[in-house]
Amino acid sequence: MSQRNHWDKIFEEKIDQQKSWFQSYPTTSMRFIEETNLSKDAPIIDVGGGDSLLVDALLEKGYTDLTVLDISGFAIANAQKRLGNKAQQVNWIVTNILDFQPVRNYACWHDRAVFHFVTDHQDIGRYTKLMANAIKKGGALVIGTFAEDGPEKCSNLPVQRYSQTALTDLLKPSFAKIRCINEAHQTPFNTLQSFTFCSFKRA
Question: Domain containing 101 — which CATH number?
Fold first, then answer.
């Protein structure tokens, strides 16, 4: 099964409470994004945004230049249906992140839990180069991955886990760390998953 088919099947068949990553409100992501002090018309991209509620929260806060990218067309369709007419205010992209060819630069790149699915050494390099090229100089990267003591797999796929130090070192010299935290995400099944969450400035 291709990666796209794998994720389409999940987003087609599972409700929110069956998705381990579901959050009723993306508190940490919103806090990190708001700390960047971006103007409300600054271009923001949510990579792997799927049908998460981050785009809803950003719209509610008045951000006007939003892009959501996901490998799953079903995930995007779920989000568009939920947003109704507001979906027209968002740029939607269905693609594998490693195939993404940005036609513009972004002031903020948000990725909660896509990066850790990129496990091949060369692909990790491709993704970090992609971010470095796509984020404006002085722009922000907000990224969350499974921590060293986090799950070894998610949705039956292997993941690459990162400590704060490992993630910071990997993104040098293109990105300078702003701050990192460790976070315990409570899943809808009342289990805890350890995350490393960081923000960086494009050097």
Answer: 3.40.50.150
Q: What is the pLDDT of residues 3-35, one digit of tens each?
A: 888 877 877 888 777 777 678 899 999 999 999
Asked if residue 21 is part of any domain, the answer here is no
Instruction: Kindly list the distances between the CA atom of residue 83 and the CA atoms of 87, 109, 148, 151, in Å, as whole numbers in the listed order.
Output: 5, 21, 35, 31
Handedness of CA 96, 23, 43, 64 (dihedral sign): positive
Q: Provide the 10 A C-beta neighbour count for residue 173.
A: 7
Structure tokens belonging to residue 81: 């249906």
What's the angle, vertex CA 168, arms to CA 163 and CA 169, rounded to 5? Answer: 100
**Is 63:87 a contact under the CB 8 Å cutoff?**
no
Assigned domain for 151 exists: yes
> Which residues partner with 192 through β-bridges?
186
Domain coverage including residue 56: 3-12+26-202
Closest CA to 112 of 150, 165, 83: 150
Residue 19 counted as domain residue = no
Residues 75-129: tens digit of each pLDDT: 999 999 999 999 999 999 999 999 999 999 999 999 998 999 999 999 999 999 9
In a domain, 17, yes or no: no
First to last CA, the chain: 39
What is the Cα–Cα distance from 202 to 147, expressed in whole angstroms?
22
Domain count, the chain: 1
Give the Å distances, CA to CA, from 120 to 100, 157, 165. 17, 13, 20
